[in-house]
Specification:
The chain has helices at residues 35-48, 81-90, 110-127, 149-159, 183-191, and strands spanning 6-11, 14-20, 23-31, 54-61, 67-71, 96-103, 130-135, 137-144, 162-168, 172-179, 197-201. It has 202 residues and is of the alpha+beta class. The chain has two domains: 6-133, Ribosomal Protein S5, domain 2 (2-Layer Sandwich), CATH 3.30.230.30; 136-201, Alpha-Beta Plaits (2-Layer Sandwich).
Length: 202
Amino acid sequence: MAMPDFYNTIEGNGLAEIKERRSRFLAYAYPLMDKNKFKEILHQLKKQHPKASHHCFAYRIGGDGSNFRVSDDGEPSGTAGRPILGQIDSRELTDLAVIVVRYFGGTLLGVPGLIKAYKSAAALALQTVAVVRKPFEEKYSVQFDPAQINEVMRIVKEIKCRVIEQEILLFCRLTLAIPKNRETEFQFKFDGLKNIELTKLK
């Protein structure tokens, strides 16, 4: 099955709060493209809420849906992480994380109550952020002579490439993210230039 050219994600961070039998559930939504970045986000949130009972979460990254993780963080198995992920998937979103911080209010909610609370908190947080459509991208390294920079940057602008890294010394090297649906056009334009080394990155 062919990968689509576009995907939906969120723009900016979201926050929502619900209360259930004196327990507080604070749901945070974040755009996320790198699971290492998620560790930083979770660490900061734990520092912000050191007295919370649980920091449950789900994230999904990438277009094929295989890069995801859920955590119940001490809640009964399947009552937190999976319901949160279910809200991400029901909206067909990727490249994001939702973390729900719970302050225990003294009353046990039971499995159905917990599932409902985490699901509701995640749903509310996702309603507070705009959904944006973005192209899937392929990464390339482009190496060229400094004298060619204007030609190269003109193509970068035309194709709407995203510059990830740039190194401009005796030679120039750009690491670019190319919209997947314009990859053939990108390659064709660079085929017409001399002394340029184009490498597709994994």
